[in-house]
Amino acid sequence: MKCFNLEIADSVAHISFIRPEKRNSMIREFWEELPALVNDIDAGSKARVIVLSSTGPHFTSGIDVSLFGQLAASDAPDKKTRDLQANAAFYDQVLRLQGTFSALEEARIPVLAAVQGGCIGGGLDLVTACDMRYATKDAFFSLFETNLAMTADVGTFPRLAKLIPEGFVKEMAYTGGNISAHNAYRFGLVNEIYDTHEEMVEAVLAIAKDIAKKAPLAVHGCKKLINYSRDHTTADTLDYIAIWNAANFKVDEIMEAMAARAQKRDGQFVDLPKRAVK
What we know:
alpha/beta
């Protein structure tokens, strides 16, 4: 892979960005490699949790400028046709980019993001699609597209507006300014702040390992229902929870969890079933 390194240990898949000299900008390969990695880990039940971290001084500078000229590109042989097709081509390309981050949200297993330095533009789109976010004290978040005369379109608005108060979303969007780790924590965007990158990654991996010790079927149910409740009424969600547990209530797993707690040992739980890669 050109953009990522993958390590799997203790049922945790650690995906790290490996282009620090380019501020981990999101080049064409990024958008292909990330969903392929996530879908392969999830579909193959190769891990119970995913951790996303980065290298160098910044998490990511966002979409690489080299992509901008490609978004509305058509392969038609004549200029008139290319011009007519440009808007439709742009629409298709944006949907593809959106799908990269939706893969994080749609994965059956939790995805945790560890952010240091700048998390800019597309980086904010990425972390809002994760289940939890952690940051170093020098981290900052920027909905940068406004500074480029663009409206962010890869996933920030529908997710960020459900994570933090609307007024803060609008402040980030309208000004395009940097939001400090402190304010991100105050807004509720990040779960915790750490002094150093090393301390953060170690702590986030420890959190991931703790999650990985829980019954995967139960954790998957939590992610499914929390995401569902975000977009549905309380009444609809209560009904869905009842249906979900009617189909997924596993007495054997519950008995194993109780026995493991009583015996002060890790539970021996069933992994999620493998499924076809998207």
